């Protein structure tokens, strides 16, 4: 869409909501009273389905106790694999290639360790705008192997401080590169990287391609198997709305099912013989091998409920609304906020699910917005992240958020707040 498709005014937003095919889904989410919640790229809202699934798991624990591992619905013993089957369509994978397990950072550790041992070459290509945990984990895995991270990490630099160019990633791949590991969406600017082009270029050079999908799963369709991505990780508490600290997920291409996980644990053992308690580890013959410890049922259950909502629509429909909402948000920032700048790519195929609104006093602006009941987050140095999550955000919400932001900036209300200190932002 382009700017000519939009108009100013709350009446236009209300009219768009009347024709929105996903508008009815918002009623299934608990939206904090008297707030405009546009922070779903950090923590998605609780849905009735997620709440019901969690309540059901608690009831099963109460009524079945240990028998829940075999008698719950579904049995807890295969919970991770079953949830992986249901997640597979969202990432374009075969069911056996996906499992829910661990946390995102733990999954980076185990998959980077596994594939680094498997690959030719000694270098790992990353980019300077990655979420920090990716680099922490990769550096730790290199050190564990006696490799100096400063020598083995090839860090692709940004040309503008906001985005990463595909050609720069491809140009960083050489004969000594083992793995390219990049985010699907940059957490600050919201840029969507070209997974297909990067994967194809990596494979042409004998390099393995892995991705962190934390900021795209549940809002951007993926086609991991068809593209040939080797491995991927993600969290489930953002667009998947599975709750704070919810269990993470991972994908391993079936071509690598013969790999032996670098971090072995009993929950990744072959399920048929797991309770024989053999001292020798026999990994499952699919992505399930990358489970490490016992699945935390109370952390996984809300995801089971949340996925029901996705199964009532399609990830393509979610993406379509997401792009319309972010197009509208960008239009309003351009028209109503002359002191702010959009730091997110405007091309739909280069944009994830949130918009980076830039202002020199972004931290204090975000604090002033929260005072007004607008829930956003700040990312240094100058970004207010605004996320119109398509399952529960309306066009009227977007209009109101920009109006609140306009008043904060025009009236310089942010000057009432102290410069950034520590703590969560």
TrEMBL record:
Q: Give the reaction(s) catalysed.
A: 3-hydroxy-L-kynurenine + H2O = 3-hydroxyanthranilate + L-alanine + H(+); L-kynurenine + H2O = anthranilate + L-alanine + H(+)
Metabolic or biological pathway: Amino-acid degradation; L-kynurenine degradation; L-alanine and anthranilate from L-kynurenine: step 1/1; Cofactor biosynthesis; NAD(+) biosynthesis; quinolinate from L-kynurenine: step 2/3
Q: Which cofactor does it need?
A: pyridoxal 5'-phosphate
Whether Hydrolase counts among this entry's keywords is yes
A Pfam family matched by this chain, by name? KYNU_C
Superkingdom in the source lineage: Archaea
> What's the EC number here?
3.7.1.3
**A biological process (GO) annotation for this entry?**
pyridine nucleotide biosynthetic process
In its UniProt record, a GO molecular function of this protein is:
kynureninase activity
- InterPro entries, per this entry? Kynureninase, PyrdxlP-dep_Trfase, PyrdxlP-dep_Trfase_major, PyrdxlP-dep_Trfase_small
Q: What class of enzyme is it?
A: hydrolase
The alphabetical list of record keywords is: Hydrolase, Pyridine nucleotide biosynthesis, Pyridoxal phosphate
Subunit and interaction comment: Homodimer.
Q: Which family does it belong to?
A: Belongs to the kynureninase family.
| Stated role | Catalyzes the cleavage of L-kynurenine (L-Kyn) and L-3-hydroxykynurenine (L-3OHKyn) into anthranilic acid (AA) and 3-hydroxyanthranilic acid (3-OHAA), respectively.
The protein's name is Kynureninase
Q: What is the name of the gene encoding this protein?
A: kynU
